[in-house]
Amino acid sequence: MDAAFTAEQDEIRRTLRDLLARHSGPGEVRAAVRTAEGHDPALWRRLAQELGLPGLALPEEYGGAGCTATELALACEETGRALLPSPLLATAVLAAPLITALGAPAQRARLLPRIADGALTATLALPGGSMAAALGLTADNRTGGWAGGGRAGGVQARLGDGGWRLYGEADRVLDGHSAGLLLVGAHTGGYPRSRTLLFLVSAEAEGLTRTRLTSMDETRSLARVELRDTPAELLGEDEAAIDVCGALAVTGRTAAAHLAAEAVGAAAGALARTVAYVKEREQFGRAIGSFQAVKHRLADLYVRVEAARSAAYYAAWDPAAGPLALAQALEAARTVAGEAVQLHGGIGFTWEHEAHLYVKRAAADELLFGPVHRLRDHAAGQAGLFGDVTPDGPVRGVALR
């Protein structure tokens, strides 16, 4: 493994960091989350058209840049540093890889070029309330619990003369209120032979209701999606050959690497702002950053951030390490954000201070994609550290091998 970045990768990082420094400061972030879209549409168009951000990891035949997961991870690190509200995570990290993996050739040709140029945003709408379980990060997703249970649980799909129709709802859908396309997980085959497939639902489809939810982290727009006899298109060609759980697990490992890079960026951003503050804030006639106790705390935070960054970069190269890298990055982001509030003193405890943007991002990400201890527990179980692993989890009490 060559850990050095190429000149092109360094240029992606530098260009994006410079652009976001000019157009995505704390004031711009707060203004963007209060728009109807939950992000700045003009900035998103610029990121898509000038930098090709949503198409970085898409094949060139579909209008993408044909880059690897590393380039997208570097972009996610910079958007995380600025706490940028954008459709990048839902569109490029979650939806686009699933369309690429499962979509029929005609579906890929119709949708991916529009995603690559920023004209179409997309998201993944899964019932059951656990994105981490559905992506195979905290549990084996083949058990099906993430898709909702029971005869009428989750979202139900029915095939009639007019095509597929969906009925049900999904909560906490990233950018669900503004995405132009939804990938909806739904049960098919009735109760005895139920299986979960993915369906394409247009934002203009009949019977679709989308409600933006109040969320802890305003920079992560969440929505409730309700479907009432809504027309949909099956993602893929041969229903019997579609392996949704396998595609979700593969996407989950790559997404974990990108989320880890984004969390590292947020932690680094919080640390940089804290270092700048302690250099300026004076107490007893000297900058508080000159006190040894403050230096030690900042040094500990720096080590945490750099360790999490190394893990995130490795996961971008080897997605199998994604869940563990995500656990380390989420933990680092939570710790650094909490210390940022402490080291800012009285002003850091005011709700309006920018330090709280990082605190809320760290807490919300762990709720959406963790928690940390479950990410590690599942990864350890998959590695056989606790003995035999069943679909329901590791068998406790078995001797280590």
Automatic annotation (TrEMBL):
Name the InterPro entries for this protein: Acyl-CoA_Oxase/DH_mid-dom_sf, AcylCo_DH-like_C, AcylCo_DH/oxidase_C, AcylCoA_DH/ox_N, AcylCoA_DH/ox_N_sf, AcylCoA_DH/oxidase_NM_dom_sf
Cofactors named for this entry:
FAD
Q: Identify the keywords attached in UniProt to this record, alphabetized.
A: FAD, Flavoprotein, Oxidoreductase
**Keyword Flavoprotein found:** yes
The protein's matches in Pfam families, at most eight in alphabetical order, are given as: Acyl-CoA_dh_1, Acyl-CoA_dh_N
Query: What range(s) does the Acyl-CoA dehydrogenase/oxidase N-terminal domain occupy?
Result: 6-118
The yes or no answer to whether the keyword Flavoprotein is present is yes
Every Acyl-CoA dehydrogenase/oxidase C-terminal domain range: 257-377
Q: Which domain of life is it from?
A: Bacteria
Family listed: Belongs to the acyl-CoA dehydrogenase family.
Q: What's the protein here called?
A: Acyl-CoA/acyl-ACP dehydrogenase
Q: What is the scientific name of the source organism?
A: Streptomyces cyaneofuscatus
